[in-house]
Amino acid sequence: MDSAATVPSSATAAATVLQEQQQQLQQQTSRISLLVKEVESSTAGANSANLVLQLDSLNRLTEFSEQLRARVQEHNQHIESLCSLHYEGFVESIGQLLQVKSDASQLQRRVADVSSRVNEVCARLNSLCVDLMQSGQTLHNLDSARESLQLCLPVLDAYSRLRAQMNRRQPYHALKTLERLEHSLLPLLPPYAFTEAIRRELPRIREQIREASENELKDYLVGVRGDRSRLVGAIALRLVAQQAGLAFSMLGSSSEPLDHGEGSNIDDLLDFSPVYRCLNIHTVLGEKARFQQYYRNQRSYQCTSMLQMSPLGSSRVNYAEFFAQFVGFFVVEDNLHHTMPDMVTREFLNELWQNALEILTRLVRARLSDKLENTDALLDFKKYIQLLLIAMRSYGYRVALVSDLIKEMQAKYFRVLQDNYRPMFQHIFADDNYTAMLLQNAEDYKAQVLDLYPFSSAEFDSLPYPKRTSFSQMVPLVYSTCAQFVDECLCFHDGASADAGGTSNAELEDSLSKAINDLLAYTVRDCFKERLRELHLPELIQMIVNVEALEEVCDRLEAYTMQRLDSGGVKLHGKAVFKDCQAECESFAYEKMKEQVNKMISLAEYDWDYDPIEAGHTSSGNHGQQQAQSAQNLQQQLPPPSAWVSDLMAYLHSTFTAFTNLPPKVAQTACLISCKHVHEELLGLVMDPQVRSIGPAVLLQLSSDIACCKAFATNSPVPGLEPETLCMAFEELSQLLRLVVSNDWQVFLRECQTGPRSRYDRVTVSKAVQLLEKVREFDRRKGSFLANFRSKQRKETEVVLKQLRTLVPGGTAH
């Protein structure tokens, strides 16, 4: 089995080997054919070495030689066939070739001749080419030099221009030239010696440019701080004045040339190019933030120094210059804010405005408190403050503090006006004759009354001339002076609407009402009080009439004020003021009446110890009978009133009869007060502690005097005053004297103990006790008829006194 299996395997291997050998033989044969073809090609000579190596590797050189001979034989046969085919043509070609040979020889000679000549020409051409190449190199060098010079010339020109600009102090243009030189021109050049020198010079030039720009900025700041800023402010104030309807002439003489000179436009006066250039320079230098801070610090310092060093004088020119410079400062900054908002920011302007406004407020308040006491100066000052308010508000600043300043100036103006009007009212009160005005004709009526005071009364107008007013010349003068005060107060608000920086209608009404009320309540009233102390009774009576007329003056003054304001919100309190004045005047009149009464009462001379019985004593035998008869007559008959009482009543009667213009209530009150005062003085005489005894005769005389006073009261000269009311003023002393004289003690005691009191209701127990004790003391000291003839009555008097003392609170029956 094994041997049988091995045999096929060997056969298979042999077949495989045989097959591989056949394949190799075929491959070698193919390669030999390829080598033959390669020999036939035109490149076989070049590759002969390689061909030999390949033949050697195949080891079949014989087979290659055979194939190569066979191939040569094939080619020979092919050539023979071709030659036989083209023989005639070949012979012709040979003949032609021989002919061409002679021509070629001739041509060769001619070509040699041409070649020699060409060689000569080429030699010369080579020489020219060498020259041309040298000339081209030279030209190239020249072009390179020209190009280099063209690159250097702008650098040199820029550097020259830079130096010239530095000499002409044009730092902004110099910086632009420097930047172009440094970043655009110098990088184009090789590092020449002069370029390196320029590069080393540039930092120093840059520093000079920075210093030059700062110097230019300083010059600008100095220029804009002075006249330029003042001119800008003057133009701004002029425009504001025109828009507000105010007269531009008030801006002072310094601004008048602006109306017809050059530079009357703000834009023509504002040249911010130094600031722009300096900002650009510092921006390029990388110092923009430092420059902005430097500019703000400088302007803040200038603003403060401007306010602290500029005098706020008292003339219109001083005001114009001060406020023009103040407004011009902020107008300049506002224009810069619109063109350079990142440098002059709104926050910086607001802070600058607040600081300046605080300083300005202190200056204005100091000016108001120390020096401004003239209304014209106050008005001028106020107009500039008003223009400042309008101008700064138009630029977007907060002006609440300026409005407060105007209100403070208004209060100051009103106070100064009141002080100015005080002498006027003093003259009116001092120069008045306190007599009703006598008007002879209509011309007098118009000149003395209607031209000063819109007085109207149908009853008065119906009276024929000559006629008298109830008031004196003082009343029309007071009205006309108050109306003039209103006009001058309104001068403060002329041309000042709420939109133009003034106060609103309601604020104007309130402030004007307060000013007029203060004038009436303080100035007029103080002058009235000063004069009141110097007046006599007739003048006081006329003053009362005048004050009553002045209450009507307040109504007409209020109507006049509302007419001037064209509104109905004015409320004057003058009536209350003049009511108080009238009360004071009436009080003074009453005191004057009391003084006159006191002068006449001081003439009273009562002999308190007078005893008519003792004065009439005789030595006749009928002495006792005569004394009794005298006592009886004394009790039954009153003596005539004292002369001073008669004179006093006649004076009072004539006084109250003459005062027909006196208001009825005042006349009634004066009469009643006078009667009460007379009664009080008489009662005071009776109850005077220094009067220790009173005789019956004096009691009867007092009773007669009181009866005379009651007779005056019964025939009262004052219309509307009830006689019973006036008589009651004397009732207490009348009842007391009647009680003592009539010895009606039992009735009095009964009324005091059980009531009701009707007959002696005005008599107090204490006064009855005092008077009865003085009567008893008289009896003890004089031993009067009561002791001699009426001892029983004397004992009754003691009993009455004891009973009366028990009725007095805290009294004892001793």
From TrEMBL:
Renumbered residue ranges of the record's region Disordered: 615-636
GO cellular component, one term: exocyst
Location of the Exocyst complex subunit EXOC6/Sec15 C-terminal domain: 404-774
GO biological process, one term: intracellular protein transport
Alphabetized InterPro entries for the sequence: EXOC6/Sec15, EXOC6/Sec15_C, EXOC6/Sec15_C_dom1, EXOC6_Sec15_N, EXOC6PINT-1/Sec15/Tip20_C_dom2
Domain Exocyst complex component EXOC6/Sec15 N-terminal residue range list: 67-236
Skewed-composition ranges (Low complexity): 625-636
Record's keyword terms, sorted: Coiled coil, Exocytosis, Transport
Keyword match Transport: yes
UniProt family annotation: Belongs to the SEC15 family.
Function: Component of the exocyst complex involved in the docking of exocytic vesicles with fusion sites on the plasma membrane.
PANTHER family the record matches: EXOCYST COMPLEX COMPONENT 6, SEC15
This protein's name: Exocyst complex component
